Amino acid sequence: MHDEAPFADAAATRAQPPAEHQTPAERHSAAERHTPVLLDRCLDLLQPGIDAAREAGRTPWVIDATLGMGGHTHEILARNLDTHVIGIDRDTNALAMATERLAEYGDRLVTCHTTYENIDTALETAGIDAVDGILFDLGVSSYQLDERERGFAYSYDAPLDMRMDTTSTLTAADVVNTYTHQQLTRVLKAYGEERHARRIIDAILRTRETQPFTTTGQLAQFIIDVYPRGTKGGHPAKRTFQALRVEVNDELAVLEAALPAALDAVATGGRIVVMSYQSLEDRLVKYAFAEATTSSAPAGLPVEPEEHKAQYRLVTRGNEKPTPQEVEENSRAAAARLRAVERTREPLSRHHYSDRFSQRTRRNS
C-alpha cells in the first residue's frame, strides 16, 4: 500500500483498461507485475509466529488485513504449506482479483469484505479464536492508484472519487463541494497537516458556488494556482489529496479501532507487523505498540500485578525504513515505515486491549 500518487506511471496507467473491463488473464498479469513493499522483511517478521504455532501443534493462521492484490499473502502461503490466511479488504474489486490470483491455495485462503477493524468478524468467518500473525499494509494500494478512474491520484484527470470501497457513498467531490469552512479546515489540517489550508479552503468556497469540483485534474490544477509560489515540499496538491482520501475512507478512525482489536486477536508467540506511509498513521501505531509493551502498573507498587504486566515486546527498534536498494527496486517503498511487536504473555481477556483503549478514549474526550 502507498500514500502518494505516481507520476512516472501515469501514461502506462492510461493504457490499461479498468479492472472490471479486464479479462481474467489481464487481471492476473497485473497482479503478477505488482511488487509488494518490503516483502521479505515482512515475512521474516511474521515467520516466528507461524513457527510458534507449529511448535504448539496448531495450524498456523495469519491475517492479511490489507489483502490488496494478494502479493504478501501469496508468499506466505507459498513458503508455509500448512498455513492459512484470512484476507481482509474493503475493495470488492481487489478481493475478486486476489481470490482469482490465489485460487491455487484453495481453502487455505479465507476472504472477508470488510474494513480491518472488524477482525472479530474475520475470526468468526474462519471459525477460529486467534491468529499467529497480522499484517497491515496501510494507505492506498498500488491497484487503487493504478486504476485512474478511482480518483486517488493527482497526476492525471479522473472523477473526484477516492472511495476504497465503491459500495460506500461519500466521495471526495462530496467533501469538496458540500463541507463547510469549519469541516474542510478540520480535514485539511488534521488529516493533511496542510499549512496553507485556509488559503486553499477560502478559494474552494468562492469557486464552488459557480463551478463545482468534479475531477482530480481540476482540483489539482486549482490548488497549484492558489498555492504560494516557491513553496517546497512536493506537489502542492499532495497534502489536500491525502486529507480528502483519509476523510472519505475514515482511515484514521478505522486504524485506531483496528490496532487494539489486532492486539487482542494474536496468540502467544504471534506477531503484528504494520507498514505505514505517513506520519499520522505511524503515530497511531507507535502509541498502540507502546501501550502494549509497557507496564500499566501505577508507580510505587512493590510488586507488579499480573494484570498490569506488558503482554507484548517490541521487535523493531523504532520504525524501520527501506534500504536504498529496496527503494531503487520499488520506488513506492520510499515512504514506508515498519513496526512490529510479539505477544509474550497469554491474554488476560478476549477484549483486553479494545476495552482498555476505549476507556482511555472516553476519559480523554
UniProtKB/TrEMBL annotation:
What's the domain of life for this entry?
A: Bacteria
Q: Name one GO molecular function term.
A: rRNA (cytosine-N4-)-methyltransferase activity
* Compartments, as annotated in UniProt: Cytoplasm
Q: Which residues bind S-adenosyl-L-methionine?
A: 70-72, 89, 116, 137, 144
Pfam families this protein is in?
Methyltransf_5 (PF01795)
Q: Which GO terms describe its cellular component?
A: cytoplasm
Q: What biological function has been recorded for the protein in this entry?
A: Specifically methylates the N4 position of cytidine in position 1402 (C1402) of 16S rRNA.
Enzyme Commission code: 2.1.1.199
InterPro entries referenced in this protein's UniProt entry, alphabetically: RsmH, SAM-dep_MeTrfase_MraW_recog, SAM-dependent_MTases_sf
Q: Which protein family is it in?
A: Belongs to the methyltransferase superfamily. RsmH family.
Q: What is this protein called?
A: Ribosomal RNA small subunit methyltransferase H
Compositional bias, Low complexity, is annotated for 7-19
Q: Which UniProt keywords apply?
A: Cytoplasm, Methyltransferase, rRNA processing, S-adenosyl-L-methionine, Transferase
Query: Which NCBIfam families does this chain map to?
Result: 16S rRNA (cytosine(1402)-N(4))-methyltransferase RsmH
Q: Which parts of this chain are annotated as the region Disordered?
A: 1-31, 341-365
Which gene name does the record give?
Answer: rsmH
Q: Where is the composition biased (Basic and acidic residues)?
A: 341-358
**Enzymatic reactions:** cytidine(1402) in 16S rRNA + S-adenosyl-L-methionine = N(4)-methylcytidine(1402) in 16S rRNA + S-adenosyl-L-homocysteine + H(+)
Q: Which organism is it from?
A: Pseudoglutamicibacter cumminsii
Predominant localisation class: cytoplasm
Its Gene Ontology biological processes? rRNA base methylation
